[in-house]
Amino acid sequence: xxxxxxxxxxxxxxxxxxxxxxxxxxxxxxxxxxxxxxxxxxxxxxxxxxxxxxxxxxxxxxxxx
Length: 65
Fold this sequence. Notes:
3 helices
C-alpha cells in the first residue's frame, strides 16, 4: 500500500469515527422508549458497518452476531 492510500483510509476512518461518536451522543439523549424508537427509525443504517469499514470483520475473532 502506498502512503497516500493509507492516509486516505485514515481520513475516511476519522470521518466515520466522528459520525459514529455523533450518533452515539444523539442516541444517549433518547430518554424514553418512544424517543429511542423514533431515533432508530430515522437512522436505519445504525452505523452497524463501522467495524467492516475498519477492516476487522474478516478477522476470525470477529464473527457476525
